[in-house]
Amino acid sequence: METNTKINALRVLTLMALLSTAILVSSAHAAEPNDAVTQQGDPARWYQEEMTPTAYFKTLKKEAEAVYQESSIACKHMDKKDVGPCLRAAKETLQQDMAAAYSKSGIKTR
After folding, report:
1. Phi, psi of 71 (to 5 degrees)
2. CB 45 within 8 Å of CB 57
3. DSSP one-letter string for 87-107
4. Which residue has the higher pLDDT, 89 or 36?
């Protein structure tokens, strides 16, 4: 009978050790930053996205300018007769995108 009690106690201790190891591993994994770019010692605020109206506007502006740049490069590879209208259309699209950026972000136009 005493042997069964020792075996049961050993099983309980083993189970507790396994559970505590699993908890430690999962908490250590959760504490690690998910982003592969983060470096040890970097402040957490560096990796928090800024969602102010100004930051949102800047993001929309960058996207609009990137589209314009890609469009103008594509226009320059067209036939000479099509370059002018294509660039005008790209510029018009940029203006529309910028107007939308001001509208979406709530920033007042200059």
Report:
1. -65, -45
2. no
3. HHHHHHHHHHHHHHHHHHHTP
4. 89
